[in-house]
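Quick log. Single chain, no ligands specified.
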Amino acid sequence: PSSFNFSIFSSTGQKIEVGSNKSEIDISQLNPGIYFLVIQAENRIGQVSFVKEKI
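-> predicted structure:
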C-alpha cells in the first residue's frame, strides 16, 4: 500500500490532529461533535465527515 497523510478538522475548520500511515485513528479524546477527516495519498485527496457522540 502507498503512504498517506491525514488531518482531522472540527466543524469550524480548526485542525485537530494530523498523522500518517495509521490503520486506526484514535478519536476517544475528541469532544462530541461533527468532524471532517481529510486523507491525502499521492495525487488524491478524499474527505469524509463523521459524528463523535457522547458515550
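The mean pLDDT is 93.
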